[in-house]
Design a protein that fits this description.
The structure is a single chain. This protein is α/β, with parallel strands linked by helices and 730 residues long. It is 38% helix and 14% strand. Strands 3-2-1-4-7-6-8-5 form an 8-stranded mixed beta sheet, sandwiched between helices. A 7-stranded parallel beta sheet has the order 11-10-9-12-13-14-15, with helices on both faces. It has a 6-stranded parallel beta sheet with strand order 18-17-16-19-20-21, with helices on both faces. The longest helix has 19 residues, at 244-262. The chain is elongated and about 105 Å long.
Length: 730
Amino acid sequence: MPRFSIIVPSHGVVGRLSLALDSVLAQSYGDFELIPVCDAPGSPAADVATGHAGRDSRVAPVNSPPSAGLSGARNTGLRAATGAYVLFLDGDDTLAPGALATLDARLTKTGDVDVLYFEHERTPWWEGEPTNPATPLLAKTPADAFSPAQAPQLTGVQLPAWSAVYRRAFLTEHQLTFPEGRFTDLGWGGLVTVAAERVAVLRSVVVRHLLRRQGSRLNLPGEHHHQLLDQVESVLGAAHGLAPERSHALFEQLFAVVLKTASRPERLPSGHRAFFRRAGRLYRTHRPTNFHAPGGSLGVQHRLLASGAYTAFKALRGANRSASGAAERVPRPRMLRTRLRYARDLRRPIDPNLAVYCAYWGRGYACSPAAIHAKASELAPHIRSVFLVEPDAVDAVPKDVEHAVIGSRKYWEALARAKYLVNNANFAEGVVKRPGSVHVQTQHGTPLKKMGVDQSTYPVVAAATGSFAKLLGRVDRWDYNISSNRHSTQMWERAFPGSYEALEYGYPRNDVFYTATADEVARVRRELGVPEGKTAVLYAPTHRDYQTGFDTGLDLEAFCAAAGEDVVVLLRAHYFYDQGRAKSSGRIIDVTGHRSSEDVCLAADALVTDYSSIMFDYANLDRPIVVYADDWEVYRETRGVYFDLMEAPPGPVARTPEELAQVFRDGSYAGAESTALRAEFRSRFCEFDDGLAAERVVRRVFLGEPPETVPPVIPLAERVPAPAATLVRS
């Protein structure tokens, strides 16, 4: 009985078959049989094999029809093998010189093992350095033969069939053969892993694998990719009863391959959704007890697959190709003349009485920058204020507010010379932080979703954020960062680490929720077109990073019909989808394009939102809030959140349109339980908002008053929110 049986399938590689066979026959160690597997007698490959057999008696060709594929060829070779150990070699690969002698020496030292894994080189077809991907896989294994439980991370799933030798008696005892179909190496490697009881490794290159110019045929588009799941299912079925440490590693490696295919839709011209769904069923059915998904992007994919969230996975897959951060779209001084003027203005003295403001990357006069601007005009009239806006937002700027169009000469001059720079996002990348200037970051909401550098492990939003190094460079310009509650203070410190000072003053934009009168509420409702006596429900869904374009996520006409005749809906989409024109119809009033979200909140008798930060602002009004959480699990996994909203909601939670309509129909949206939830929510998140936030900022930053002299925060129990139009507040 020879020491080694070397099986060489030859279909489609006849041009290099001679090299493969010669590399075996040239080995210094001669105790082997060489079994070329050819298509049929008389085929080109058979002629090559027959010629070698005529020169060396150790060559024993066999035949396997092309229709049997690679698995059929290998199984045919297995049936013909008589050696103690079996080694597979592709017909266009070669054995490294001295490989068989090295294998024999290693097996002599380890004694009989079921499998001996070894290193291999992947050689580019034309030029380039060979790689050895098996090295890190074998590096942390015991020096001698060992039980698979001692190195559960080492499985055949990550190695091709020709990167190991197998004890033939072991294969026969367990009736191991190559599974039919494509991806047979994965099925074989997994089944061998499950059955093996004693293994060893050889940290030397045995096989030199040629990387074909056209790449692996397995990577070509086609329906054959569905067969990957057949192989995975076969291995998972055989792995039942495996020790936890082994089953966890095997499961994770199998689904790493599955997710790699799922993330490449070009490989599945049709049936991609079906592939994902079947993979999800396999995942849920065979997931080992206490299995924990890996971290980072792969872990997100695991969780999406487990939950069957195909739409989110699809968006995640394409995020790096399509997303770009809003900050990257902000203009910078690119033209030579503009750069020169900006550089010149930077050398001029800072104007101590100049302040520039910007909100939402220039979308208009809005949010906390507008509130601070208004208060500064009152308390610090000596300061000249310039609001920065995009060209299409100029007409919406109040007539008495000086403005500069983003990208204009005036814009860059103001940025270069201003003492005070106030923004709820970030200024352009090219803006220089001058010594003596003061940058105030107002933020634009309390963070439920992950922000800043905390987004790095969420690929969809990380792609949209862009360079985190550049983000932190912008953070380094901040002198003050405004917070509305201690939760925000802590999360901003995590998300935007920097040397700025946190001002726990409340959000200036929320001041109006305590200063507005009943007449002002009535005026806003008239401007928005809310019918007299109707209950106005503000529906404000947030942006989904895994969706393209805006989708209300809810049939609003059906909601109105089910909720009651007195209900109208104020629809406010995320500001990403502000097209500047209303699309109202029937009982739906589109207020997305309205300048002030604060006005819209004042007009609403109740709020329905999903995960938008508007809930934290609206809670200041102490009016009913309902959370519509039809995709909470998907949102949490793809966007990331700082706390479980389902455990601490500001009011009732509805999971379906029917549940949402019911809480309005039966009045529970404004009932005692809703009131209790809102009270707890307000105590946590309305901590510093009391109507005096803008004044605190102006006095501290613009007027230089010491912290102890700014107005203290009014206790929550003593605040009186603006009155609602149709509801009595608890």
